[in-house]
Write a structure and sequence with these properties.
Elements (H helix, E strand, L loop, with lengths): L4 H20 L5 E6 L5 H13 L3 E7 H13 L5 E8 L4 E9 L2 E10 L4 H20 L7 H17 L5 E10 L2 E8 H7 L1 H6 L1 H10 L9 E5 L6 H10 L14 H13 L11 E3 L6 E5 L3 E6 L2
Parallel strand pairs: 1-2, 3-8, 5-9
Antiparallel strand pairs: 3-4, 4-5, 6-7, 10-11
Helix pairs in contact: 1-2, 3-10, 4-5
């Protein structure tokens, strides 16, 4: 049986709806859904469709870094104008946004990113490393065996998480391929070496966002880490060094910040009058140029990114 991506996404949303209803003890009908800032229009529409399939009324689609900035703004509760850089590295996508926050107004100055960079790419580097090791040790290639590769990927993801807090991680898989057990160890240093180019590439969108916002590194007041992959020490270290040894803002939960911000936006849209959010205003940018197709199939931008 084959499924459309929207159908798979809707299954996740249905499960989330059930969890929310069980926790709240009431029906949930409306939703604010977040997407990577660099999603194009068709990706956003597909996300909306998934929500409709799941039986939700989509109040708004908002960008993940923007949602995280809402969480940061309420956590920090600072009145005066500040520039904040949101560094959002998740499982499959990467976004950088710069916002100007002043007295409840959240204005996005620029956004940059890569919709194909995240934790899964780091897992893949580990998987390929261990496939080669298995080949060296046992003269057998497991690449063609989907089940073996999937089991190895699961173990690699676990090892990656371990390496965020330990200097070494063990891989132990019984009967990985043709009855052969696979046991190995990887150090944090080796993991960083395998992914060094990917880790470095996360700084390119940071530079681009700064350029687009016409700001220097010194103009940024806070650097906020969002997304599970920012727990990788080397990624945080590279970012700290890029900003001249500045300390990163880690007070908000990297996993929950986006959902927290989306909930705040939902409350605003539903007319919540709480003191903390009643004057909240969100001003976002178009991350990609919007245009029309003209003669010869040329895209003519009407609204530049």
């Amino acid at each position: 049986k084959t499924f459309f991506p929207e159908e798979i996404s809707s299954m996740v949303l249905v499960k989330m709806k059930e969890i929310a209803e069980a926790y709240l003890g009431c029906q949930v009908a409306d939703a604010v859904i977040t997407v990577p800032a660099y999603f194009n229009d068709s990706q956003r529409q597909a996300t909306k469709d998934a929500g409709v399939i799941a039986g939700l009324n989509i109040l708004r689609i908002i960008n993940e870094p923007t949602a995280a900035a809402l969480a940061y703004g309420l956590d920090k509760n600072s009145g005066q104008g500040i520039n904040v850089l949101i560094f959002d590295l998740g499982g499959g996508t990467f976004d950088v946004s710069i916002l100007y926050i002043d007295d409840g107004v959240f204005e996005v100055k620029s956004t940059a990113g890569d919709v194909h960079l995240g934790g899964e790419d780091f897992d893949t580097r580990l998987v390929n490393h261990f496939i080669e090791e298995f080949k060296r040790k046992n003269k057998k290639d497991i690449m063609g065996n989907k089940r073996s590769v999937r089991r190895l990927r699961t173990a690699c993801e676990r090892a990656k998480r371990t390496l965020s807090s330990s200097s070494t991680a063990n891989i132990e898989i019984d009967s990985l391929f043709e009855g052969i057990d696979f046991y190995s160890t990887i150090t944090r240093a080796r993991f960083e070496e395998l992914n060094s180019d990917l880790f470095r590439s996360t700084l390119d969108p940071v530079e681009k966002a700064l350029r687009d916002a016409k700001l220097s590194k010194a103009d940024i007041h806070d650097i906020v880490l969002v997304g599970g992959s920012t727990r990788i020490p080397k990624i945080a270290k590279n970012l700290e060094e890029f900003f001249g040894g500045r300390e990163l803002y880690r007070t908000i939960n990297a996993d929950e910040a986006v959902a927290y911000g989306a909930a705040v936006q939902g409350a605003v849209l539903k007319g919540d009058k709480s003191d903390t959010i009643k004057d909240l205003l969100l001003l976002d940018v178009a991350p990609l140029s919007l245009g029309i197709e003209t003669a010869g199939g040329v895209m003519t931008p009407l609204i530049k990114r």
